[in-house]
Amino acid sequence: MKKWIGDAMESLMGSRMPHMQVLTTEYLSPEIKRIRFSGAISAMNFEPGHAVAIRVSDTEYRNYTPSYSDTTAGLVDIIFHLHGHGPGSDLANRLQTGDSLRISMPRGWKHYDPTVRNQVVFGDETSLGLASILFPLFRANGHRFQFLLELEECNRDVPARLGLENVSIFPKSQAFRDEEQIRALSLLRDPDWRGTHYLLTGNVTSVRTFRNVLREQRHTVRSQGYWLEGKMGL
User: Fold this and answer.
1) Nearest to 59 by CA among 37, 83, 91, 85
2) CA dihedral 6, 10, 12, 13 (to 10 degrees)
3) Where do the domains of the chain lie?
4) Are strands 220-227 and 197-203 parallel, antiparallel or unpaired?
5) Under 8 Å CB-to-CB from 231, ≥6 apart: which residues?
6) What is the mean pLDDT of residues 40-64?
């Protein structure tokens, strides 16, 4: 995208792409930063798992899933993965209290089905915002739920810092790149977890492999890869 197109889009969108000011920042680990923004978002509808677009450079946008929102108070929290080699990561690392940027209207697929009792969410660092916004819904609505997260060692304490429960953490090795290792998961062999809704996010390669196993076992699956090695801007 050329710079003038981005400038024109922001000008035309107006209130549909409001300015947001950074209220607070917090490093949950060296690679995970949570930022609270404040702005005029009363017209926005934040469905669980929907993403907002943020302009991260003159020519690029990236999508982020809010981990918390309060449209009445005008508050939005976003959890950023600072992986160190991209414009989104660089921008998030630079943001400080008082800085401002624009966010788009939330949009995306329906990720949460309140009618299904058993819910499993799979992902990685890029899925922490989704996990954070789904967790209180799971608890409030009496779901049986589990989070399966593949995380770098330096980030393994972040789910606990976020207050998440029922979390199983896996190292970023080959666990979710190998169908046999996935089939060996106790969750998939437990009859009490039949009829589970699986939501797969994060690394595209892991998502595809996990999805293949779940589909052969006739589970209900919704998947959305957030990133892929060697591909910018997924």
Assistant:
1) 91
2) 130
3) 3-102, 118-223
4) parallel
5) none
6) 92
CATH node for 3-102: 2.40.30.10
Mean pLDDT value across the chain: 90
171-218 confidence digits (pLDDT tens): 987 778 899 999 999 999 999 998 899 999 999 999 999 999 999 988
How far is residue 92 from each of residues 33, 34, 81, 229, measured CA to CA in Å?
8, 9, 8, 20
The pTM for the full model equals: 0.91
Give me the count of residues in the chain. Answer: 234
Q: How far apart are the first and last CA of the chain?
A: 14
- Residue labelled with tokens 């060692």: 153
Q: Which CATH number fits domain 118-223: 3.40.50.620, 3.40.50.40, 3.40.50.80, 3.40.190.170?
A: 3.40.50.80
In DSSP notation, the chain reads --HHHHHHHHHHHGGGS-EEEEEEEEEEETTEEEEEEEE--TT----TT-BEEEE-SSS-EEEE-EEEEETTTTEEEEEEE--SSSHHHHHHHH--TT-EEEBPPPB------TT-SEEEEEE-GGGHHHHHHHHHHHHHTT-EEEEEEEE-GGGTTHHHHTT--SEEEEESSSGGG-HHHHHT-HHHH-GGGTTPEEEEEEEHHHHHHHHHHHHHTT-EEEEEEEEBTTBS--
